[in-house]
């Protein structure tokens, strides 16, 4: 299971909450998770998605799936991906997850790619 501190210090959304936030059906959220467009963890039988990955403007950044693929290809487990996304990076001015919907989004993906080198 991921770091308890990470879980308690971030907003975690259930599948129905994500569907409501994105204004889509629950089945679409399940498909997004299955296709790697969203990151999710199961805890106590419930699927949770980090709220920071789900903006309130009804769309998920297109580059998220690519970022998750890069991290998986780098050999990261789900817990390691979570830790990397939520660990502050001074050179980014915060956590990688916070930069995903701003001008530093490409830099986050570049850094993930560099981890494999």
Short structural description:
The protein is mostly helical and 117 residues long. Helix content is 49%, strand content 9%. The protein contains 7 helices and 3 strands.
List keywords for this structure.
117 residues, mainly alpha, 3-stranded antiparallel β-sheet, 7 helices, 9% strand
Kindly describe this structure.
This protein is mainly alpha-helical and 117 residues long. It has one domain (4-114). Helix content is 49%, strand content 9%. It has seven helices and three strands, in the order αβααββαααα. A three-stranded antiparallel beta sheet has the order 1-3-2. A hairpin with a 2-residue loop joins strand 2 (41-43) and strand 3. The model has no long low-confidence stretch (mean pLDDT 85).
Number of domains: 1
Span between N and C termini? 27 Å
Structural class call reads mainly alpha
The number of E-state strands comes to: 3
Rg from alpha-carbon coordinates: 14 Å
Count of DSSP-assigned helices: 7
Strand content: 5-15%
The biggest beta sheet reads: 3 strands, antiparallel
- What is the string of helix and strand elements? HEHHEEHHHH
Flag low-confidence runs: none
Name the strands of the widest sheet in spatial order: 1-3-2
Helix content: 40-55%
Global outline: globular
Assembly level? single chain
Mean pLDDT: 85
């Amino acid at each position: 299971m991921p770091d308890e501190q990470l879980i308690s210090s971030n907003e975690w959304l259930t599948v129905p909450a994500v569907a409501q936030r994105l204004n889509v059906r629950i089945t679409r959220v399940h498909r997004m998770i299955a296709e790697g467009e969203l990151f999710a963890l199961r805890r106590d039988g419930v699927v949770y998605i980090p709220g920071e990955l789900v903006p309130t403007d009804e769309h998920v950044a297109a580059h998220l799936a690519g970022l998750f693929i890069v991290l998986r290809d780098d050999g990261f487990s789900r817990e390691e991906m979570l830790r990397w996304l939520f660990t502050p990076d001074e050179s980014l001015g915060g956590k990688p997850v916070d930069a995903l919907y701003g001008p530093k989004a490409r830099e986050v993906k570049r850094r993930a790619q560099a981890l494999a080198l």
